[in-house]
Design brief:
- With 189 residues, the protein is of the alpha/beta class.
- It has a single domain, classed as Pyruvate-ferredoxin Oxidoreductase, domain 3.
- 41% of the residues lie in helices and 24% in strands.
- The chain has 8 helices and 6 strands.
- It has a 6-stranded mixed sheet, with helices on both faces.
- The radius of gyration is 16 Å and the shape is globular.
- The two termini are 23 Å apart.
Length: 189
């Protein structure tokens, strides 16, 4: 069984990422459960999706210390969902910072050195500037697929399976950019 928690902010493409991962698992013949928690996604709030796959999956929810991988689209979201990660799990995090509402309104400041604090806890962290790679691919909105590429490179799943699913899942007009973003993420890892 594989448990992947995807954490991000509304508008970052977490739902497309979970759809791609779910479709990869279906392509491989696994039972799949995907659950989405939107929160205040329309206002830049936290968005979490759970992707679980294996021989038989009974619940779509990932609890504390249950995620094999946390795929975080933003540093603060990585820190927020760190407790879901298994002790031997892997955190893949985009080094981008997106200010939450309390920071925007001036009530709080964005925490500093988040990745260093996480590493100090002994967590296996892969930090990637996915925004720069997405821009290099031709569209900064492809951060999600860059991160899928990093994740793919850290699995035993054939790269071609991910590429096939991306071609089938992403609308045609965005397909080339997303395949390039996937490749940049895959090669980064």
């Amino acid at each position: 069984m594989s448990n992947i928690l995807i954490a991000g902010v509304g508008g970052q493409g977490t739902l497309l990422a979970s759809r791609i991962l779910g479709n990869v698992a279906i392509t491989l013949g696994h039972d799949v459960k995907v659950s989405e928690v939107h929160g205040m996604s329309q206002r830049g709030g936290s968005v979490v999706t759970y992707v679980k796959f294996g021989e038989k999956v009974y619940s779509p929810i990932i609890g504390n210390c249950d995620a094999d991988t946390v795929l975080a689209f933003e540093e603060l979201e990585a820190y927020r969902y760190l407790e879901a990660l298994k002790p031997d799990g892997k955190l893949i995090v985009n080094t981008q910072n997106m200010d939450p509402m309390p920071v925007i309104t001036g009530k709080m400041t964005y925490p500093e050195n988040i990745i260093e604090k996480i590493r100090a806890k002994g967590v296996n962290v892969i930090a990637v500037d996915a925004l720069s790679l997405a821009r290099k691919a031709g569209n900064e909105r492809a951060v999600n697929v860059v991160l899928i590429g990093v994740l793919a490179a850290n699995t035993n799943i054939d790269k071609a399976v991910f590429e096939k699913v991306i071609k089938e899942t992403v609308p045609e007009k965005f397909r080339e950019v997303n395949l390039k973003a996937f490749d940049l993420g895959y090669n980064f890892a």
